[in-house]
Amino acid sequence: MGVKAFPVSADEAARLATLHQRCFKQSWTAAEFASLMNNPAVIGLVFTEDERDIGLTLLQTIGSETEILTFGILPERRGLGLGYGLLQAICDLLLASGKHNVFLEVSENNKPAVNLYLGFGFKQISVRPRYYDDGSDALIYRLALPQ
Ligand SMILES: CC(C)(COP(=O)(O)OP(=O)(O)OC[C@H]1O[C@@H](n2cnc3c(N)ncnc32)[C@H](O)[C@@H]1OP(=O)(O)O)[C@@H](O)C(=O)NCCC(=O)NCCS
Predict the structure, then answer these.
(1) With contact defined as beta carbons under 8 Å apart, do 15 and 8 qualify?
(2) Which amino acid residue places its CA nearest to atom 30 of ligand 1?
(3) Quick check: CB of 83 below 6 Å from ligand 1?
C-alpha cells in the first residue's frame, strides 16, 4: 500500500471540496476552499493511497503555530490507521519546514476524532463551552513537535 500526502494549489480547490463533501455532513464549497487557499498562510494537502484520493487537510500557519482547519479520511477507508498516517504526514511536513506546534478544534461529541488526536499525543489546552450548533463544547488540542 502506497500512501502519500502532498500540497496542492488553489487551482485544485474542487478536488479538496469533493473530498470534504464525502467526509463531512456540512461541507465547504470549492469557492470556499479556493478563497482559503489563496491565503499564503494556508496549505491544502491531498492524501492518496495507491494514487487514489482518500483524505484531505487544510493547514494555516502563523509564526511557528499551525492550525489544522479541516481533516478527513473517506468513510470507506476509515478504521485502518490512515488518520494516524495523515497526522504523521502533517507532522513530517511541519518539522521539515521548522514549525513547532500544531493545534486544532474538535467537538467533544466527535469521538472518532477525539480518540484519534488523543491517541496521537495531542493534549487538551482549552475548551469553548457550547461552541457548536448542537450545544457541544469545542475542545482545543495542541501537540508540541520536537525541536
Ligand atoms: C476522525 C477520522 C479522521 C479518523 O480517521 P481514521 O482513518 O478512521 O482513523 P484511524 O484508523 O487512523 O484511527 C486512529 C484512532 O482513531 C480512533 N478512532 C477511529 N475511528 C473510531 C471510531 N469509529 N470510534 C472511536 N474511535 C475511533 C481510535 O482511537 C483509533 O486508534 P486505534 O485504532 O489505536 O484504536 C475519520 O473518522 C473522519 O474523517 N471523520 C469525519 C471527519 C472528521 O470528523 N474530521 C475531524 C474533524 S476535527
Answers:
(1) yes
(2) 116
(3) yes
